[in-house]
Structures are given as C-alpha cells and as structure tokens.
Specification:
The protein has 76 residues and is mostly helical. The protein contains two helices and no strands. The chain crosses the membrane at residues 26-48.
C-alpha cells in the first residue's frame, strides 16, 4: 500500500520494460513481423501434420506386415 506522500515505485520499476510509442506508425513494422512469424508458424504446423500423416500410414503398414508374419510363423 502506498501511504500519503509516498511515491509508488511499481510504475517506475516496470516502466522501462513496457514502453508504447506515441506515434502509431512504429506499430506497422512490428505488426508486419508478427504477421510473418505467425504465418510461418502456421505453415510449419501444417507441414509437420502432413509428415506425421505419412509416418502414421507407414507405421500401420509395417504393423500389418508384422502381424501377418507373426500370425503364421511356419508359413516360410
């Protein structure tokens, strides 16, 4: 609690970490770079999903081959 006559220190301690420019034109480069990285993250996410789907298909195929082989061990 801040008593009468005391200066609150919190705004001064945190003020140097969070600064917002007065001119809004400085937000444009930040918005462009943020949009770029968000788009890049979404693109990488979909690439990983596509790779994962291929790996799941390969794993199921391998599992089926192993199950067929183990079902009739003396078929060779």
């Amino acid at each position: 609690m801040v008593e009468k006559g005391e200066v609150p220190l919190f705004p001064y301690l945190i003020g140097f970490l969070v600064q917002f420019p007065q001119e809004k034109k400085y937000y444009i480069p930040a918005l462009i770079s943020l949009s770029f990285f968000v788009l890049l993250a979404v693109l990488v996410f979909f690439i990983f999903r596509k790779i994962n789907e291929k790996q799941v298909k390969q794993a199921k195929k391998l599992e089926e081959e192993i199950m067929k082989k183990n079902r009739f061990p003396h078929a060779d």
